[in-house]
What does this fold into?
Amino acid sequence: MKKNKIYLLIFIFLGTFFIACEDSKEDQIEQSFDRSLVLLNWSDNIITPSYQAFQEKLNILKASVDKFKADVTQQNLDLVRSEWVNAYKSWQHVEMFNIGKAEEIYYSSKMNVYPANISRIKSNIDSEQYNLGNANNNSAQGFPALDYLLYGGISDGSKVIDRFLSQDGNKYLSYLENCVNKMISLTKTVVDDWKANKGSFVSSTENTATSSINMLTNDFIYYYEKGFRANKLGIPAGIFSSKTIPENIEGYYNGKISKVLALEALNAVHDFFVGKSFDNSKTNESFKYILKSLDTKKGEENLGEVIESKLLEAKLKVEGLDENFANQINSDKVKFLETYDAIQKVVVLLKVDMLQALNINVDYTDADGD
It folds into this structure.
């Protein structure tokens, strides 16, 4: 009987010891870096100016569409195309911030679901009866829809400008205008909410599943893994299917922008990881700072240094690809897959090593079999 009591006391002691160790570990993580500094840098130097720049690009795009609608010429179409590219590049800097109102209204799903649903777009244009707020139209609006309207769908040898000058030209012009107006409206909703709630974002310094750092860390990793790695490269390369799907690249109809957009996105990811301000004027507290503060090692090196190094290696791989990812897949798929593998190495470092160091749990389900 005494022996059983002794075992019970030992069990209780060990249980208390391990719980205390876990609490101590969490306290150590809490005390090893200043969460408020990270949140301030994210808010004031990265997220807010990124959204401001994106809004400006959309407004310029809107002005070019208005000019084109008033005077349908090739010159004005080229202007719209140029401003679409500029806005699309700017979008790469805000897509990862799927938090708050952006998540609530499915902002990314209405701005950049590709490939575009061409049959849906045509049906909407023909009927002139459509609601872009309907989830069924997510793949019939945003940047991919503009990609089709400005560059694609011409198979009879005519030019895109002829579509806007045809009998149904006003329908196409109206759809083009409505898509841009919807993008501006959605962005205003997100930005206004961000401005109104920026204070609560910065003041949320606790380490809980719903605190700012924990949520945005998960959103950042999710974007890198799914929005960047899978959507831009993995799906077109056939990683998750039985065959390649080159027509699923971003900016498919433009034909020269998929690499540009991927590099823009990867630069945005890198800059956010190291804490570089949107205007490139300074580098402050972010993930690299946290990992340095925690003195987290990967082998003999600091984990933050390792992750940045792998991000730069992935960038070099992307820079070596064809400007048109569809051409790259069709001509040299191995090179494309090697680029994907370089990007994948960072996924493991972020999703396993970094989250473990930060004591943050993954809050999304991985269902793509990778």
In short: Residues 110 and 138 are 5 Å apart (CA to CA). DSSP finds 15 helices and two strands in the chain.
